[in-house]
């Protein structure tokens, strides 16, 4: 049996998500989870939604790109959509076409809005710890080929690897510790959005490009993404981050 390049990439992706250095940034881990999903699966975008710490609602944490981020915000505004349902139900969603029932009936306002943005189908897998459901990894597709059974199992494996890293960070923590950690990630999300805006304006690039440069800079210097973002929002932009991309 010959090992393929994709199998090597999958093994590397799972290892990268599951094993993090001590004190890692949970928000950066979830960003990486969406990036790995897009890189390894036949999907256009991926995002993370979680149950609020008090369990009363659902909020988005991060997304692989601005399109997914906008659609996550739309679902919060409309109070309907696959990302909300998957987090609330604590159950995975199979691949559902947004052009026909049950999705077009289940999400009558979100489905046409997503189609206008170019998204034709959705799916989701659980994001959880051994004894605690956190939310969902949501997958958005722009056309065939759509994820098959094995692809969705891979998506669940990636989400499980990230969940294992979160559990290890808290040394198999209790529920309150994990929820505090998630709340910190939600607070950090706003700082990162502000930093993306600063970089976008300074570099003259779109928000997706600004985010990619932000992540690449943090990773190459083993900095926490949120620390770098906070520094940028204070007006202290690293000089080498403003240099043209190579």
Automatic annotation (TrEMBL):
It holds the Pfam family ANTAR. Gene3D superfamilies: 3.30.450.40, Winged helix-like DNA-binding domain superfamily/Winged helix DNA-binding domain (1.10.10.10). Transmembrane segments: none annotated. InterPro entries: ANTAR, CheY-like_superfamily, GAF, GAF-like_dom_sf, GAF_ANTAR, WH-like_DNA-bd_sf. One of its GO terms (molecular function) is RNA binding. Keywords: Kinase, Transcription, Transcription regulation, Transferase. Signal peptide: none annotated. It comes from the Bacteria. This is GAF and ANTAR domain-containing protein. It comes from Streptomyces rimosus subsp. rimosus (strain ATCC 10970 / DSM 40260 / JCM 4667 / NRRL 2234).
């Amino acid at each position: 049996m010959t090992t393929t390049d994709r199998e090597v990439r999958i093994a590397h992706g799972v290892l990268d998500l599951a094993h993090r250095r001590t004190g890692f940034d949970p928000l950066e881990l979830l960003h990486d989870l969406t990036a790995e999903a897009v890189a390894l699966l036949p999907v256009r975008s991926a995002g993370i939604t979680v149950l609020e710490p008090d369990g009363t609602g659902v909020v988005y944490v991060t997304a692989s790109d601005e399109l997914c981020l906008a659609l996550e915000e739309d679902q919060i505004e409309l109070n309907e959509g696959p990302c909300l349902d998957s987090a609330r139900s604590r159950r995975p969603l199979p691949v559902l076409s947004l052009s026909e029932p049950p999705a077009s009936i289940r999400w009558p306002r979100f489905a046409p809005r997503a189609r206008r943005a170019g998204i034709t189908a959705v799916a989701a897998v659980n994001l959880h710890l051994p004894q605690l459901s956190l939310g969902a990894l949501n997958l958005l597709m722009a056309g065939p080929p759509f994820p098959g059974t094995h692809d969705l199992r891979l998506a669940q494996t990636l989400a499980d690897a990230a969940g294992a890293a979160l559990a290890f960070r808290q040394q198999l923590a209790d529920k309150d510790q994990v929820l505090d950690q998630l709340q910190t990630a939600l607070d950090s999300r706003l700082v990162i959005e502000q930093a993306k805006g600063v970089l976008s304006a300074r570099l003259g690039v779109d928000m997706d490009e600004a985010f990619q440069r932000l992540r690449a800079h943090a990773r190459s210097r083993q900095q926490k993404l949120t620390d770098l973002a906070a520094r940028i929002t204070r007006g202290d932009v690293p000089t080498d981050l403003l240099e043209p991309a190579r």
